[in-house]
Automatic annotation (TrEMBL):
Coiled coil: none
Domain called HTH lysR-type: residue spans: 1-33
GO biological process, one term: DNA-templated transcription
Protein name in UniProt: Regulatory protein LysR
Native species: Pseudomonas syringae pv. actinidiae ICMP 19096
Length: 80
């Protein structure tokens, strides 16, 4: 549950990080730019790989170890 301003700030930070506009803002609507569409396709592949790795580890019967992970809250909320 994020406010619109918080989401807007995170999108702006992501666009700054990748040095491309990812969304075209038109009358309170967002559309993916070509760069945004390419980025989305690549991120989906990565998220699919994370999901597959998670399923693999769930079925793993070996010894356990401690894993410490630091992520942005939006990523962690979805995947951790």
């Amino acid at each position: 549950n994020l406010t619109q301003s918080a989401v807007s700030k995170q999108v702006a930070q992501l666009e700054e990080l990748v040095q491309h506009l990812l969304f075209q803002r038109v009358r309170r609507r967002l559309q993916l730019t070509p760069a945004g569409a390419l980025y989305l396709a690549e991120v989906r592949k990565i998220l699919t790989q994370i999901e597959m790795s998670t399923h693999f580890l769930r079925s793993y019967g070996g010894e356990t170890e401690v894993l410490r992970v630091s992520t942005p809250s939006t990523f962690g909320a979805r995947w951790l």
